[in-house]
Write a structure and sequence with these properties.
Largest sheet: none
Number of strands: 0
Strand content: under 5%
Helix content: 55-70%
Shape: elongated
Structural class: mainly alpha
Length: about 120
């Protein structure tokens, strides 16, 4: 009987902790800044972006910034060959894409840098 009570109390404590985590925690969200996305796109050019980081960028919608989401969708169309253009081919020697694919990503990077330059300066207090 004593073992049953001990297991019951231990299970109850674990469940209460789990309920607290689920009640007061928040769901993980992918909220990259414009500068982080700029670094990811620049990394495609200089071989510093990992395949995992690139796949995460392509696979997760960016709901907090409509302009970043539009650029992400352009990168998806480059990656998958949508909008009447062929898919970017895989690169060699550590590059994610071949030269033509990197040129297309470079145009997206240039657009993002223009957006960053023209965005108003804000500071959170």
């Amino acid at each position: 009987m004593g073992e049953f009570v001990l297991i019951f109390v231990l299970t109850l404590v674990i469940l209460l902790v789990l309920v607290c985590f689920l009640s007061f925690g928040r769901a993980p969200a992918y909220r990259p800044s414009r500068e982080e996305i700029r670094d990811i796109l620049a990394g495609v050019m200089n071989r510093t972006t990992s395949v995992e980081a690139w796949d995460m960028f392509l696979g997760m919608p960016i709901i907090h910034d409509a302009e970043l989401e539009q650029l992400r969708r352009r990168c998806i169309s480059i990656h998958e060959g949508l909008d009447g253009e062929p898919a970017a081919s895989g690169g060699m020697d550590g590059y994610l894409y071949d030269r033509a694919g990197r040129e297309r990503i470079k145009r997206v990077l240039d657009e993002l840098e223009r957006i960053i330059r023209e965005s108003p300066f804000t500071r959170e207090f």
